[in-house]
Design brief:
Blueprint (H helix, E strand, L loop, with lengths): L1 E6 L7 H15 L3 E6 L32 H7 L4 E7 L7 H11 L17 E8 L7 H4 L1 H16 E8 L18 H10 L1 H25 L1
Parallel strand pairs: 1-2, 1-3, 3-4, 4-5
Helix pairs in contact: 1-7
Keywords: Flavoprotein, FMN
Protein name: Iron-sulfur flavoprotein
Family: Belongs to the SsuE family. Isf subfamily.
Length: 222
């Protein structure tokens, strides 16, 4: 089993990356091979609307034709048994890097055919891990609930299964006094990171382990 996690945060050692690492630890606990990829290390762009992935008989049919530093990542993802995408929420959405990645990763598998929904050859679980400064009671106001529903719907349609983990009201700075952030209570933020964030880490661990178990069960049925 191979599980790949994609970090759509510019930070390599903060909330999103930590949760992705925990998810991979969970996958590794079930004997899966794991890999963590940081999108901000790569020089790439989103979909260029060339439609080569939809061209009948074309050499890139069902695959992204663009060649850049994301190309090898997309090739490795073809062999993954589970994929976990992680991103902080910026302005009510995933980061620009994650959105560009999703265009390149998901769109080539989407068909415009009535009888075929996906070019992806098998079913794998695709998980989403979101980190955000807002609390859950603001989801509907800023549209986070719609983002989650939309991404899960697309991923389920293309890959077969999807679920999401949201880590809310996250700790953003090492020292809140250095930033213009008076609407926050640093003590409450620190308490939540100490008490709640470890629970989110455990949930991420369980996601990674569960995905591997799911795939092993599917393989056993073949």
């Amino acid at each position: 089993m191979k599980v790949i996690a994609i970090n759509g945060s510019p930070r390599k050692n903060w909330n999103t990356a930590t949760l992705l690492e925990k998810a991979l630890e969970g996958a590794a606990s079930e004997s899966a091979e794991t890999e963590l990829i940081h999108l901000y290390d790569l020089n790439f762009k989103g979909c260029i609307s060339c439609f080569a992935c939809k061209l009948k008989g074309g050499k890139s049919f069902g695959k992204c034709a663009v060649k850049d530093e994301l190309t090898s990542v997309l090739e490795r993802l073809e062999d993954a048994d589970a994929v976990i995408l992680g991103s902080p929420i910026y302005l009510g959405n995933s980061t620009g890097e994650m959105r560009s990645f999703m265009e390149r990763y998901i769109f080539p598998y989407i068909t415009y055919s009535i009888d075929i929904q996906t070019f992806y050859p098998r079913n794998i679980p695709v998980g989403f891990i979101y980190t955000m400064n807002i609390t859950e009671d603001l989801f509907e106001l800023v549209g986070t609930n719609k983002l989650i529903e939309s991404n899960e719907w697309v991923a389920t349609r293309i890959f077969g299964y999807s679920e999401s983990l949201c880590s809310t009201d996250t700790y953003q700075f090492d020292d809140y006094s250095k930033y213009a952030s008076s609407i926050f209570n640093p003590e409450e933020k620190a308490k939540r990171r100490e008490e709640v964030f470890p629970q989110d880490c455990q949930k991420a661990f369980e996601m990674g382990a569960r995905f591997v178990k799911q795939q092993k069960a599917l393989e056993a049925q073949k």
